[in-house]
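Changelog-adjacent note: as of this version, every example in the card shows the full chain rather than a window. The one below runs 127 residues end to end.
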Amino acid sequence: MHTWCADEGITFECRAPYTEEQNGGAERSRRTLMDRSRAMQLEASLPPSLGPEAFLAAGYALNRTPNEQLGWKTPYEIAYGKPPSLTHMHIYGCKTYTLDKRIKRGDKLAPRASIGHLVGYNSTNIY
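Full-length structure tokens:
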């Protein structure tokens, strides 16, 4: 780790144990993600066991949110040089319908999908 940091021109500094105050930026980022993920999970009425998924989804959304410190650009835009596509973004916890191809087509009124909830984003077309 020290070698990689030195090669990249990064100054590696450890903080003293049990003094989170020395790591203010990272602690504030963690708190922002925790607050957003908690709000998302409560609004979606999902079980607490999906907390890690809410945390990841909050980070995904935060990286696609404009920031004043970045000149109203998104972190994604700064990293990749182009604005992110938001067409695949849906409300966290919204109902999803998954086609079940094993269901026979004999009954026209029978359901052909399983109902679920959106709990995260893996890609631009995978939830």
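Structural remarks: The longest strand covers residues 95-99.
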